Amino acid sequence: MIVTQKALPRRTFLRGIGTSMALPLLDAMVPAMAATRLAAKPAVRLAFVYVPNGIIQANWLPSAEGSGFDFASTMQPLESFRDRLNVLSGLAQVSGRALGDGPGDHARAGATWLTGMHPKKTEGADIHAGISADQIAAAELGKSTQFASLELGLEEPSMVGGCDSGYSCAYTNTISWRTPSTPNPMEVNPRAVFERLFGDGDSTDPASRLKRMQEDSSILDYVRENVGRLRPGLGTRDNSKLNEYLDGIRDIERRIQKAEQQSAAIQMPVLDRPSGIPEEFTDHAKLMSDLLVIAFQTDMTRVVTFMLAHEGSNRSYRSIGVLDGHHSVTHHQNDPEKIAKTVKINELHVRTFAYLLEKLQSTPDGDGSLLDHSMILYGSSISDGNAHTHHDLPLVLAGGAAGRIKGGRHIRYPKETPMNNLLLAMLDKAGVRAEHLGDSTGEVQYLSGV
Amino acid sequence: MAILLLCLAVPAQSAPGSSAAQPQALIKQYCAACHNQTLKSGGIALAEMDLSDIASNSAPLEKVLRKVHSGEMPPPGMPRPDTATARAFTQWLQDELDRSAATHLNPGRPTIHRLNRTEYSNAIRDLLALDIKPGAMLPPDDTGYGFDNIGEVLSMAPVLIERYISVARTVSRLAVGDPAIKPESVEFRPPKNSRRRERVSDDLPFDSAGGLSVSYWFPLDAEYVIRVKLAPIAGFDGPQDTRSLELRLPVKAGTRTVALTFPRQEAFPEVIAGLRGTAAAPSTPARAAGPAPFADLRLDGARLKSYDLPEGAAPALVALTISGPYNITGPGNTPSREKIFVCKPAGANDELPCAEKIISRLAYHAFRRPVTSTDVQPLLDFYKRGRREGTFENGVEMALRALLVSPDFLFRIERDPAGLAAGSVYQVNDYELASRLSFFLWSSIPDGELLNLAGEGKLRDPDVLARQVSRMLDDDRSKSLVSNFAGQWLYLRNLAQVKPDPDDFPEFDFSLRQSFERETELFFSEILRSDRPVTDLLDSKFTFVNQRLAEHYGIPNVYGSQFRQVVLTDPNRGGLLGQGSILTVTSYPNRTSVVQRGKWILDNLLGSPPPPPPPEVPNLKPHGEDGSLLTMRQQMELHRSNAVCAACHSRMDPLGFALENYDGVGKWRTKDAGHVIDPSGKLPDGTQFDGMPGLRQVLLTTRRDDFIATVAERLLTYALGRGLETSDRPAVRSIVREASAGDPSAPAPSFRALIGAIVKSVPFQMRRTPET
To answer: Mind listing the pLDDT tens digit for each residue in B620-668?
Structure first.
């Protein structure tokens, strides 16, 4: 007895929205506030797409630098976006190294990728990393949108039996940290993402959606009063837990306000509610990518993190004939068969990313496409999965950042250049001021083409 | 060994405060060379420690006790005391630590505990008689210390409250039976990967095969459409519509079972060939001769309709869809409504008092404590709001929505009594104790009886407490101990995610996976229910199988898909270590893993996890230098020739090798890669054993105490919802002693005995105020 699908039938939608027609997912979208934004400066969107366990360098890294570089085999699906991306090499996230903490490179990789902070080695009680770059951006860019950020994933968080060498599973399950002690969970269910964006009501009719939000709003008031009543006499840990909860309340209240302001401007999409988690990796990845694009397109959010699998993932990819676990094959010890399997997984992930770029490119936004106006970082916080190295990270930065990034190049930075310098530069180009991130020493150069 | 057991069971037999001079000298002689303030090996300095002050040094001394007791310290190659001296030392140390713990109580301090998905689902089930597992709509929970009910670890990300609000809305509408509920379609599909035609659910008739049975909450008395889609029938070119069946019918609100069944017909082959690699729809064999088949659509077991199918077709279900409600006739008479509407207003003047009665009652159960007007008044405001815009019932629904998002419902918050000094220790109040009990044993809220006893101040009475624990364990809700505690402790939850390679294990399919899970669940339940010693988990003369599993294990004369208890004659199948579930979750998709199996035993049965592997571990080499295929043992021996690897693998591998006669899905085998399997092993301490029965014997004798202590530790972690500290070790020892009734020659304690001892223990009954 397995519930595989749970869908609202098309006719339910038709009833809810009167005369509108249900259309295929993307075409149905009404470009959000496209009219109002035409004149203004296009908003820059940020996405961070993560793949675990490193990438086989031989099939990844271009041999040539600068423009006219060659696309190595793994990266080939990205060749058609040559002008809209840069391959970045030489960057390092040295906080991911052991630094006296012993094993646990996968946990540290996940935790450092966007935070740049060496995570505290603990199984849970007192997890601590840093605020991640996406959340720094979300705090600023989120002022204009209903959702400060979205966190998407394709793999249920693991699992019983511990995650990595005495580290909390939080470090491997997410790359997004709202505060140094609050990891944001990755949502893996497309239906849940859809409902977050567009509501879980019986109708997408703006008036009833608004009424529901007002009801929610009064419930939030009630919850806040209750939390206030509970606080006196609680310990520090208890209080900090409640603070996190209050942050969540403020978040939704802000969103409701935004929705009220924007309800006239944004027409809700008419689209089929996803029915659940597709069984095939590729179907799941495409659906999630579609939702990511819709979230950008409707300007529901400008910041997304997207984990194609959690760090240290041992998922097997049957559809491409790799039955061994991903993590297992990355510890290949130069066994050609295992390397070949790892490469196949790397390729599958890159194809998934190419699909996302394709969608972004084909979605108009103001005077260009979403791809023109976005910055999408793809990569891993481990380069060699066999040796758990945290330098020479495999990274691709796609998107034009509304004219602030020039594509078409392979930029090789001096060895051990902090990846945090790249994150700072991305934040800067998104209009977000941040002075430091982890071991940053400034912003990386050359992105805008100079 | 007998002497040691005796000592363990009777603590503090040495005179209180007996001289520390001898142990002090021992430490100076054997430990101080490394463990001093200068070197501080392993972070521990013993040379300067004053052993007459146990209380101030209990944390490092607990480590000393562990390491010396297990023989890990002093390290190999260093001088060590003779066995008798070492035992005398550990006995003295343990007595002193226990004595110190008894006078310096440290129950720890669980943090605010958010209900996890399971607890949320169960709480809704018990509060509203609505068993729809709404927790599945919440974000996944974080796990720590092996469990997903650890307060400190369960995060409060912003997305949570958003989901709480949304789920509360869904739940309250369904529970009240809101007539404005819009139609929805839910599609159910049978598991893809089933290789055999067998009865798929115990809800279905014995003479059925294939099909699907689903439990569905019909929200209102209304019409619903049930649609059945059958697989294309190979070689049949009749009209298409034979494959899509539809029935529109009135259904009364509530949970009902909808099933589509096919008859079991001799004409159909038992095993469907050629299934491998086929896409969504299971393909069908060539036409079989025989009477025309049919499909039965059933509601709560009764046949709604029979559909004739083309002659010779071997039908297969693609999907069953339930849509509705249409033509609503009313909210119906559901268990949820009965539970909520304890009064019915006869007129307008009755409404407010009735609403107040309903809401106060719900809040009492949801908040798990007496409620005051401060609790009820805001909820009544929601009622009034809902009533203004709709009916009386809409008002109640609105109040319920708010109640389900209240922090008093969603969080377990224990409050320090006012005026206690920092670091003081106190008994949690009776309502908090009731919640601790119910979340431990039921993963849910306390029921009326527990709350009543708490209100009367009787719950702490030892007899009352014992009776309640017994009642709770006999209650059906205690099955959460199996699904949550055992499911996580033994990694059974990972079964859902294992994907054995179909080329290596063609016999593995959904039904076998389900059977594995069911066997271990039934087995664990039986040991819990019938009060057997926990060691029976490792060694039993019985298990539970159906035909599928019996064939897998080579047990003859078991027919049909229902599970039954069988007596085992094969010594290789008694206990967890012979069960397909454990053997499969500890294997790789394409082979067994000696290391994973050994590690699983060390982690979960012996409580001494090996340290994680260093990076750059060399891989196993499947071929020898001459190119010949190596057995797993040969590969591992090659691996162990590396000294770095040997330190841990010498502990893990022998345990795993003992299980090499079971393949990656737990099937018995005698050869691996063409070589006869040698399941013998030898631990670093010289213990030797042969195969699973030999290993089992070691676990039941020389390592018995370690096993029992590990069970107690895992149970206590789960019971408290927090990771254990070294300061909890005396509590674990006292729980084991209490559960063993001080008689070490008796059988090992049962789960009930351990649970009984846990609920009486200091960390379960008490709490500490923060230090500052």
So the answer is: 677 777 878 887 788 888 877 777 778 788 889 999 999 999 999 999 9
Is there a contact between A185 and B155 if contact means CB atoms under 8 Å apart? yes
Question: Which two tokens mark B726?
Answer: 């070294």
Return the closest-CA partner of residue A233 out of B418, B371, B433: B418
Helix (H, G, I), strand (E, B) or coil at A199: coil
Six-digit token string for B82: 């003779």
Residues 6+ apart with CB under 8 A from B308: B292, B293, B294
Q: Which residues pair with B213 in a beta bridge?
A: B259
Nearest by CB to residue B111, choosing from A160, A241, A324, is: A241
- Read off φ and ψ for residue A178, nearest 5 degrees: -70, -45
B614 touches chain A (CB under 8 A): yes
List, in sequence order, every residue forming a beta bridge with B319; answer none if it has no partner.
Answer: B229
Buried b (16+ CB within 10 A) or exposed e, A202-212: bbbbbeebeeb
List the one residue out of A167, A115, A44, A87 whose CA is nearest residue A377: A87
Radius of gyration of chain B (CA): 30
Burial bucket for residue A264 (CB in 10 Å: 0-12, 13-18, 19+): exposed
**Interchain proximity A200–B169, CB inside 8 Å:** yes
- DSSP 8-state assignment for residue B484: I
Which residues, other chains included, contact A400 with Cβ-Cβ below 8 Å and sequence gap of 6+? A84, A368, A371, A372, A373, A374, A407
Pairing mode of beta strands A374-379, A395-398: antiparallel
DSSP of A88-133: EEEEE-GGGS-TTS-S-HHHHHHHHTTT--PPP--SSTT------H
Pair of tokens at residue A85 = 């991306």
The average pLDDT across A80-106 equals 93
Which of chain B's residues have a Cβ under 8 Å away from the Cβ of A8?
184-185
Query: What is the distance between the alpha carbons of residues B555 and B547, in angstroms, rounded to a whole number?
Result: 9
Residues of B in contact with A234 (CB under 8 A): 112, 413, 415
Candidates A182, A332, A335; nearest CB to B155: A182
Burial A350-382 (b: 16+ CB within 10 A, else e): bbbbbbbbbbbbebebbeebbbbbbbbbbbbbb
Report the Cα–Cα distance between both ends of chain B, in Å, rounded.
45
Q: Which amino acid is at B594?
A: V
What's the token pair of residue B345?
Answer: 């207003």
A8 to B184: CB separation less than 8 angstroms, yes or no: yes
Q: Which amino acid is at A202?
A: D
How confident is the model over A188-237, as pLDDT tens digits? Answer: 988 888 888 877 655 556 677 777 888 889 999 999 999 998 888 788 88
Cβ <8 Å between B611 and A103: yes
pTM here is: 0.84
Task: Select from A14, A197, A216, A386 the residue whose CB has the most chain B CBs within 10 Å, as the one to mutate to test that interface.
Answer: A216
Write the CB contacts of A304 (distance below 8 Å, at least 6 apart in sequence): A45, A46, A47, A48, A134, A149, A150, A151, A152, A292, A295, A296
User: Could you tell me which chain B residue has the CA closest to the CA of A232?
Assistant: B415
| Chain A touched by B215 (CB under 8 Å) | yes
- Cis before residue B74, ω within 30 degrees of 0? yes
Assess B408–A contact: CB distance below 8 Å, yes or no: yes
Radius of gyration of chain A (CA): 22
Closest-CA residue of B relative to A235 is B770
Closest-CA residue to B652 (of B619, B682, B696): B682
Q: Tokens standing for A283?
A: 């179907």
Tell me the pLDDT tens digit for each residue of B474-501: 999 999 999 999 999 999 988 987 888 8
| Residue A338 with chain B: CB contacts under 8 Å | 619
